[in-house]
């Protein structure tokens, strides 16, 4: 009867758990708490159709007579509305769950687009160099001279005028992802280009050229993996920036329509009711937005410290 032979080699999960990054994470209570809070918010928002007692996108479940009920701990509340209702009679708890999910989707997809454009342009500019590098980096400089919000406001205002409000509202999520994604690619491009300029002079790249590998394979399979550390840090911060940009645009009326509320449009819809006493319509989504952006930024700060040898102290 054969017996199992223990090779003593740790599994991939064990290697991850024993890595310096995991060790640093376990020793950093701020990072641990931030990740736990982010996961709670993300999981609850993704499970919104299951958790939410009402569907804020379904007009049949909305009664205007239920508008502006306060939260459960305020006098005059209704037990079925834990966080109260907004000006349209929608359950605020349900609307925040769906709105947070929408804000996270826009933020993550916009950062994905930023990363794809920026990494591609940075790799090409840094590896090929010469005139193409100068042209691409001057485009990045021009792009960086305009603020994201200014570019987004102009683009979305023109788009809304061209296609009309109905069509714009129908495809608002795609317009937001596109404009936020295109407006921020230079952050990635400049960082990746700087890494490529340092990496392409190393011996492993010369060896790959001698073996006959093409430029595309060398950039993607050999140089790009050595550029991932700064990309992870940038991506974490950019998710928070993208969520803030979406909230700002929605607050200005150039983002998600009232029928598909994000956190920004929720804050905007309740802004007119703050002084009339219905503070919760704006205040509660505002707190959720602040907490979400804060924990993402704290995770980004921790990741930057760990991945930067000059800052990491073990």
From TrEMBL:
GO CC annotations on file: plasma membrane
Subcellular location field: Cell membrane
Where the protein is mainly located, per its record?
membrane
Superkingdom of origin: Bacteria
Q: Where is the ABC transmembrane type-1 domain?
A: 100-300
Q: Provide the membrane topology annotation.
A: Multi-pass membrane protein
Keyword line? Cell membrane, Membrane, Transmembrane, Transmembrane helix, Transport
Q: What SUPFAM superfamilies would the database entry show?
A: MetI-like (SSF161098)
Do you know which InterPro entries this protein is assigned to? BP-dependent_transpt_permease (IPR050366), MetI-like (IPR000515), MetI-like_sf (IPR035906), OppC_N (IPR025966)
Q: Which residues cross the membrane?
A: 30-52, 102-130, 142-162, 168-185, 231-257, 277-300
Q: Per the similarity annotation, which family is this? A: Belongs to the binding-protein-dependent transport system permease family.
The protein's name is Dipeptide transport system permease protein DppC
């Amino acid at each position: 009867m054969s017996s199992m032979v223990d090779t003593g080699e740790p599994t991939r999960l064990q290697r991850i758990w024993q890595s310096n990054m995991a060790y640093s994470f376990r020793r950093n209570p701020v990072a641990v708490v931030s990740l736990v809070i982010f996961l709670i918010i993300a999981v609850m928002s993704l499970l919104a159709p299951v958790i939410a007692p009402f569907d804020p996108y379904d007009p049949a479940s909305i009664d205007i007579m239920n508008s502006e009920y306060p939260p459960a701990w305020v006098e005059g509340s209704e037990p079925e509305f834990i966080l109260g209702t907004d000006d349209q009679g929608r359950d605020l708890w349900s609307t925040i769950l769906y709105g947070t999910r929408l804000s996270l989707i826009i933020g993550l997809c916009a950062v994905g687009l930023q990363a794809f454009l920026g990494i591609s342009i940075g790799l090409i500019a840094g590896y090929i160099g010469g005139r193409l590098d100068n042209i691409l980096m001057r485009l990045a400089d021009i792009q960086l001279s305009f603020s994201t919000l200014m570019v987004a406001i102009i683009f979305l205002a023109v788009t809304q005028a061209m296609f009309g409000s109905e069509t714009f509202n129908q495809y608002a999520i795609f317009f937001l992802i596109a404009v936020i994604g295109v407006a921020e690619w230079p952050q990635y491009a400049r960082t990746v280009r700087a890494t490529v300029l340092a990496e392409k002079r190393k011996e492993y790249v010369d060896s790959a050229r001698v073996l006959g590998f093409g430029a595309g394979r060398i950039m993607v399979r050999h140089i790009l993996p050595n550029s991932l550390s700064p990309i992870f840090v940038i991506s974490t911060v950019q998710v928070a920036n993208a969520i803030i940009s979406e909230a700002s645009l929605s607050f200005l009326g150039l983002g998600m329509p009232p029928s598909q509320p994000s956190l920004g449009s929720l804050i905007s819809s309740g802004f007119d009711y703050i002084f009339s006493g219905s503070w919760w319509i704006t205040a509660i989504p505002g707190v959720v937005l602040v907490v979400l952006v804060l924990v993402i930024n704290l995770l980004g700060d921790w990741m930057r410290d760990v991945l930067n040898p000059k800052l990491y102290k073990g």
